[in-house]
Amino acid sequence: MIDPLWLRKEIIQMLHAIIAGYLDEVTPSDIDQLLTDQRIALAMDKSKASLLEQRGDFSLPVFKFAKMLKKNPLDLAKEIAEELLVRNYELSVPLISKAWAVQGYVNIRVDDEAEDTLLSKMISYFLFEEPFRINEEKKRILIEHTSTNPMKPLHIGHTRNAILGDTLARIYRYAGWDVEVQNYIDDLGRQVAITLWGMEQIEHKLRNGEIKLNSFLADDVDPEYLEELQEQLEKGDMKEDLFQGIVYVWATQQLESGNPKVAEEIEKIMKALEHREEPYISRGRQLTLECIREQLRTAWELGIFYDYLVWESDLIESGVYDEALKVMLQTPHVYKVEEGEDKGCIVINFKGFKGISAKKPYKILVRSNGVATYVAKDIAYTFWKFGLTTTDLKFKLLLRQPNGQDLFTSDPTGATINRERKIDYLINVIGKEQTYAQKVVFYALKVLGHEQQYNNSYHLAYNHVKLIGSKISGRKGNWIGSHADNVIKMTKERALQELRLRNQDKNPEELEEQAEKLTISQIRYFMLRPQVLTEITYNPDDVVNFQGDNGAFILYCLVRSRSIFKKMNINLEELAENRNPNDVQKLLGLLKRSEERILIKDIINVPYVLLQVLNNKDPSILVQHLYVLARDFNAFYENCPIKNESDKDVQLARLELLWIFTKLMENICTHLMGMPIPDFM
After folding, report:
1. Which of 86, 522, 530, 616 is deepest in the core (most CB within 10 A)?
2. What percent of the chain has pLDDT above 90?
3. pLDDT confidence of 543, banded at 50, 70, 90?
């Protein structure tokens, strides 16, 4: 089976052979880093799309090599371009049709036949019959995502975290990696103590109507929605995560009012949780589990699934944390402070370590009262993830998820399961405000001699989702109404409204089913479209917009492409049977129009786009290319008729290209992006 990156690699090898004639120390990797894929770089920028014809498919700057050789870069680029053409003509099947020098760059145009060869032999990849195995060796990667406050529902900001992590997991699996997904449950955090106290004070009063929601939420929640919530509460059908979140908001208001008694009582509960004291430890676990189950339901609706839930309390109780701290204390980098304001604290010293800068040359791991900080527990968790502790957690089956996947949870009453702990890579999907803390966590790996694990640990930092005019806050009530369940509901209502206008002949059941698919796709696309460090401002009108660069546009193109086969009474599955790559290549060779060739370039570029996603840990790169594919398909659709094409061979060739495009887009949307495809729009 042909390597999906074959064409790029062959061009790199040709360039390397030429440049190595000048410089022995140059490697293919050096050229790979410099070679720009103009098909991606320009196609994604509408203002520069016209430059694709001028700059070719690939462009190599030679300034670095010219400096090493002390040559004029313009002359060197010309020499390399000329030699490239000579070597190309010596091949049995030419790879390039043109190579020329422009201002110190070698521009390369790929031969149509080479593109058709690659595309015809990549069909099994587009059918997802086998992975885009970009790395020859199968690697194991652990992705932790979501890991949010376990005492309230997921809000719209949390969905960005979960969708990013889930999409990366899907792409890594498709690239041939062995992927494990974890969700960390912080059931010992201050938010648990605050909610436990609040439940003691207000739970029954809220449920029986003694205290109305508008008495403490009026400033932060839309009045009409507040009435809806009050009705849910009185009927007893409010989701438990939403109820606990509301209690958390009330309790936080009491704490921030300055009442010393409230602070004292919450601190007492916090200490009880730290020391594993009843009844708080059991009650906290019960409430947290009830809330987590509701959060899972929300995640499932968005197409997000997990392998393991890891509870912070189990990390402590199992001895994993104690072992990690004991090992760290055996190094000179972790020690107890003997004097000053931090006397009695256990700290990790990072003086002189590049990448961490702070007022103090150390970070506190354990406070003087013996309470571990978040960072200390996260270090222990990271050591366990990599299998660097002899102590292990116990797990038991919690439930089977809607996709048929088992979900295990850590539990002291469980058993050690046959889980491979020797991962090769780690990705933590955590907000950018945790960048410093994550550097400290990974630094702990380095100072203990785990250099490889340090190098293979990655913090996927992403920016926040803001409401119009304000930042979403867990302590304030402004997340109520923008929690994920309500966003899904509002988006579905808007999607249903749009579908009714466009499909008045459809019955309510059909419209409802398609609206659900469209809703999930719109939300996921909206969260994945910006680069990870771009702040998102959430506006319901943007999420459900049917115009421009959004999920609806992508899905509309797919529905449109499928409709051609329906109109021509062609069965897509039958079309896929007994396909011969040589026949496909001959058909593709008939396609000469610019709209056809551009779409072919977009398609064969998908493996390289996926490689960029993996290298940069940013799914927005794939989303951008998905838009390019849809945009260029529209140009193909408008300018290259199929049903009314008089030349039957050209008609078959266009059908073949349309089929490849359709199957590829279907699989990218459903398997990689988690975007269900409606039957109509």
Report:
1. 522
2. 72
3. low
Tally of CB atoms within 10 A around 265:
18
At 52, the pLDDT band (50, 70, 90 cuts) reads low
Q: Is residue 606 within 8 Å of 664, Cβ to Cβ? A: yes
**Residues 224, 226, 231, CA angle at the centre, nearest 5°?**
100
Query: Of 544 and 319, which is predicted with more confidence?
Result: 319
Contacts of 180 (CB under 8 A, 6+ apart): 140, 141, 142, 143, 307, 308, 423
* Encoded tokens for 655: 């059908």
Question: Who has greater pLDDT, 52 or 290?
Answer: 290
Angle, vertex CA 358, rays to CA 357 and CA 363, nearest 5:
110
pLDDT band with cut points at 50, 70 and 90 for residue 40: confident
Q: What pTM did the predictor assign?
A: 0.93
Which helix (DSSP H) or strand (DSSP E) does residue 125 occupy? Answer: helix 123-126
Between CA 511 and CA 345 the distance in angstroms is 61
What confidence score (pLDDT) does residue 474 get? 54
Both tokens of 92, joined, read 């049995």
Secondary structure string (H, E, C) spanning 129-170: CCCCCCCCCCCEEEEECCCCCCCCCCEHHHHHHHHHHHHHHH
Q: Residue 383 is encoded by which pair of tokens? A: 């050591």
Residue matched to tokens 């997904």:
181
The two tokens of residue 260 are 């010393």
Three-class SS state of 362:
strand
Q: Which residue has the tokens 């938010």?
A: 191
Distance CA 526, CA 545 (A): 10
- Rounded to whole angstroms, the Cα distance separating 277 from 214 reads 35
As a whole number of angstroms, the distance between CA 63 and CA 59 comes to 12
Would you state the structure tokens that stand for residue 598, as one six-digit string?
């551009």
Q: What are the two backbone dihedrals, phi and then psi, of residue 488, each rounded to the nearest 5 degrees?
A: -60, -45
- For residues 265 and 247, give the distance between their C-alpha atoms in angstroms, rounded to a whole number: 16
**Each residue's pLDDT tens digit, 194-245:** 999 999 999 999 999 999 999 998 777 888 889 999 999 999 999 999 999 9
Counting every residue written for the chain, the total comes to 681
- At 675 the three-state DSSP class reads coil
Residue 252's Cβ-side half-sphere holds a number of Cα atoms within 13 Å equal to 17
Q: Residues 196, 244: contact at Cβ < 8 Å?
A: no
pLDDT at 549: 78
Residue 109 phi/psi, 5-degree rounding, is -105, 125
Whole-number Å distance between alpha carbons of 498 and 521: 15
CA–CA distances in Å: residue 20 to residues 14, 180, 405: 10, 41, 51
Dist. CA 357–CA 347, nearest whole Å: 15
Tokens 């009409």 correspond to: 224
